């Protein structure tokens, strides 16, 4: 299994990771604001269909390195909202991502036990274009790397250094699509 995302269609990317820890431990890192803040973003997550999701990103808490110039507006205080679309604790969580005017892409986490570890399958769908697919692929790849480090009780890798490398790799590997989806 590769850690890299796989393009499912012109609007969907899927990633799989085998993570240290039980399904319950991984579920806690997805749903508990304090734990989630160590690898993604803090914020409200009402674990019911229609429940509110607020992700408050604070990249200064994720990494000790200097934020690249183009990402400085998102360095602290970047907030996005969505709603839970499916919730079956502790195995399935889906929510809208960066919802605006009732529209957004959708993130789906599926957790399956693998002995003492957990297989996490992340599917990000309804992406509006290739540019967004490249961005979320690099972002999820990096955030999942940090989650893996947290669950393994290792010092988290440098976020921006990893993200910039992943962004280049996904830029090169995700195919160009016709203009309607570019």
From TrEMBL:
InterPro entries (alphabetical): ASHA1/2-like_C, START-like_dom_sf
A Pfam family the protein falls into: AHSA1
Alphabetized Gene3D superfamilies for the sequence: 3.30.530.20
Residue ranges of every copy of the Activator of Hsp90 ATPase homologue 1/2-like C-terminal domain listed in the record: 22-151
Top-level taxon: Bacteria
Similarity comment: Belongs to the AHA1 family.
Protein name per the record: Uncharacterized protein YndB with AHSA1/START domain
Natural source organism: Herminiimonas fonticola
Higher taxonomy: Bacteria, Pseudomonadati, Pseudomonadota, Betaproteobacteria, Burkholderiales
